[in-house]
Amino acid sequence: MTPLVAELQGLEVFEQFVLDEAHHLEKIEQYLNRFNLFEVLGVDTQTQQHSNFIAWLLDPKGSHDIGQFFLKQLITHFHYLSKPDKIRYSLGDFEKTEILRDYEGVDILVLNDEVKFTICIKNFLDMPLYNAEEVLQHNYKLIENRWPGDEYTNYYLYITPQHPLRFIKQEVYFQHLAYSTLRSMINQVLTHAHLDTQVAFFIQSYVDSVDKNMMEDDEHIRLAQQIYKRHHKAIEFIMQHKPNLSGIFTQVRQYFLTERHTEYKLLTPNDAQVIRILPQEVYPIFVREQFASWEGTGAMFAIELFFEAERIWAQFCFGGIWGHKNKPEEKHRLQQIKTRYFDRMKTFSSLQSALVRDAKPTSSYPSIANFTLLKAEELSLDTPDMFDVFLERFKYFEQEVIRHWKHEVLLHLP
């Protein structure tokens, strides 16, 4: 079969797909484009924000005005509680319960010194799971040492999008809680008689976000699966011809090498995956040759540009400290410099809209802020050359972010 015949057959399959599924595709499109507060804020898949939301609902003194309702709901889901204990907790008063976030590695800690109980919650939404057992063991030992079992009743939960972690040993005393169960509990909150309209909207947005991003049994997901079964050839044809933003990487790297070299220092010109740049005016401030953060450069900081199929994004990132294994004093000195710069830059107004709030200066390559420059979904059929679109977006990024960031660097960093 010649390439031309194959292409024509692909077009026929695609045309039939559009004719058969136009109505269903429109339904899915409306579902995907439905307004959702969590998605607008860009926090729909971030563990920290999900944990913040859960902690807010658990707090009896929270602004939701549902009191202890959600906390008592959670308690009734403990498998190992006897029926009398569940009744006792359901009738108990938890008004003096404290909700602590990020307590020494514990995502959410529920503490009541009056009733003498704790609930330790670990949220595994998007963190690597290879060391999950070690993390849970650390949480368990921390709680048992701080609130001994002979004085307090301690409960342990870990949350995942769907299934329990199969490699967790039985002696790790954590009960699994899936987001599907959590969603059911939150739906019960929506039936609360005293729920404010704005609070109800906020909670419903969260439930919709969970349905869209984590649940496998959503009706729209089932519809999409049915369409794929009927038209997988057409869908594969579309996927083969969709825009791929990673394809302009070489062109952009050459652009910085030739056309913008007087304005930007290209730190790693031989890197085939990431473009790292610094404005020439601030480059000397970040040069610490002892850092050797990236091969071939002495800079301790870079603006990194990542080119993925679906998006192009920028990261303001500090580098690692290498080559001082036998010189702890020198490594400590460099870490002090890195921490000082990191802490000051985190206060820059130019980066606040995209700040990575949980980053730590002691990490090898801590990110200060991440900005999305271009998404593939933003390209239309009549979009001009992708490289031209990138240039337009980057120049806007320069004007709105980099220009102000440079000013703050020159003003606040030594």
In words, what does this structure look like?
With 414 residues, this protein is α+β, with helices and mostly antiparallel strands. The chain has two domains: 1-241, no CATH class; 245-412, no CATH class. The protein is 44% helix and 16% strand. It has twelve helices and ten strands. It has helices at 3-33, 37-40, 47-58, 69-75, 83-91, 132-146, 179-189, 197-213, 219-240, 249-258, 328-345, 386-412; strands at 98-103, 106-112, 117-123, 153-160, 175-178, 264-266, 274-279, 301-307, 311-318, 367-375. Strands 1-2-3-4-5 form a five-stranded mixed β-sheet, with helices on both faces. A five-stranded antiparallel β-sheet has the order 6-7-8-9-10. Strand 1 and strand 2 (106-112) form a beta hairpin. Helix 1 packs antiparallel against helix 9 and helix 7 (179-189) packs antiparallel against helix 8 (197-213). The longest helix has 31 residues, at 3-33. The chain is globular, with a radius of gyration of 26 Å. The chain starts with a helix and ends with a helix. The model is unreliable at 1-8 and 35-45 (pLDDT under 50).
- Largest sheet, strands/sense/barrel: 5 strands, mixed
Q: Return Rg in Å.
A: 26 Å
Number of helices: 12
Number of individual domains? 2
- Low-confidence runs of at least 5 consecutive residues: 1-8, 35-45
Q: What structural category do the secondary elements indicate?
A: alpha+beta
Q: Which sequence of SSEs, written as H and E, runs from N to C?
A: HHHHHEEEHEEHHHHEEEEHEH
- Please give the order of strands in the largest beta sheet: 1-2-3-4-5
